[in-house]
Design brief:
Rossmann fold; five-stranded mixed beta sheet; 5 strands; about 5% strand
């Protein structure tokens, strides 16, 4: 039934002359625990952009276009909230990382950097039609946020020449500590990976957990930097999470300027971010001390992953 309904929706929206591969799509990329979820929420809320909702992920994982007209009809009747629990949001219409949807298109084998880098055979057309359907319903590009896409940049850039990539970054120490906390709270095992895995994951497993999370962040960053430079040189921007927290409106204003060739965005609606109390650290104090020591001992290698507060311009670096 869903497949038939989706087919009828595509027939209605995708008239002759429309080339799905020309559709603009915005991908938010970020290694685990870099603030990608609140940033994602801020982008879609302030710019009024469509996204894959929890409803799409839970009810229509194989046919997510069916959620587009439902989300469009519900706009204005709810607010996008700045709440989440380790990347998960609550509420049918809240933005989702859409894990089930993305697995349907791209699979989910490990190590992700080697085994989940491109779209599955036979799914390319469906992926493109879905993105185009959202664009037709909303008149604006679909925003997709999923950490696994950090290793799919080459494939996504090829599929969608009009796509734009936003790399949300966060200071290495803070993101690694948050990743370690998620292991203790979500996985209940400091040895367990939270998300996608780099190609050398088996080698990293031999390290203590506090070193694993640091090196995991490093591998993600190295992969994204190389792929964006090679496949999306003029189609990406880098945003630091610390800048977003300090001045979300300036950050988003700069971002819309960087994305001006993708779509004619309206000025961002003002955002006020609510501060939340820091959760108790679920890891031993010794883990944090060792993690910080590991970063300090490899300061040169990790230099580009540290947030520098005295940099002249930290809002949005477009490339």
């Amino acid at each position: 039934m869903q497949r038939q309904a989706e087919g009828e929706l595509f027939a209605c929206l995708l008239k002759s002359g429309i080339v799905p591969s020309d559709t603009p799509v915005i991908f938010i990329l970020g290694s685990p625990r870099t603030g990608s979820t609140p940033f994602y929420q801020g982008v879609v809320r302030s710019l009024g952009l469509p996204y894959l909702s929890n409803l799409a992920n839970s009810l229509f994982p194989r046919h997510p276009a069916l959620a587009a007209p439902i989300l469009r009809a519900a706009q204005g009747r709810f607010e996008i909230e700045f709440t989440s629990a380790y990347g998960k949001t609550n509420g049918a219409f809240q933005p989702s990382e859409a894990s089930a949807v993305m697995r349907h298109w791209f699979g989910g084998e490990h190590p992700s950097q080697e085994k989940s880098t491109g779209i599955l055979a036979g799914e390319e057309g469906h992926f493109l039609r879905t993105a185009t359907a959202y664009f037709r319903v909303f008149g604006a590009p679909l925003v997709i946020k999923n950490a696994w896409n950090c290793f799919r940049i080459a494939s996504l850039a090829r599929l969608l020449p009009q796509a734009f990539f936003i790399w949300i970054r966060r200071d290495l120490v803070q993101s690694a500590l948050s990743d370690l906390a998620a292991r203790y709270v979500v996985q209940r095992d400091p040895q367990a990976w939270n998300s996608a895995t780099p190609a050398n994951v088996e080698a990293l497993r031999k390290l203590p957990p506090w070193a694993q999370v640091v090196e995991n962040q490093y591998e993600f960053a190295r992969a994204m930097s190389a792929a964006l430079g090679q496949h999306a040189r003029r189609r990406h921007a880098e945003v630091w999470y610390e800048d977003f927290l300090t001045d979300p409106n300036m950050t988003l204003t700069c971002l819309t300027q960087a994305m001006r060739e993708v779509h004619g965005f309206n000025p961002p609606a003002p955002l006020v971010l609510t501060r939340t109390a820091r959760s108790p650290r679920p890891y031993p104090d010794s883990d944090e001390a060792n993690l910080r020591r590991h970063v300090a001992e490899h300061a040169d290698r990790f230099a580009t992953l540290r947030y520098l507060t005295d940099s002249a311009s930290r809002h949005t670096d477009a490339a």
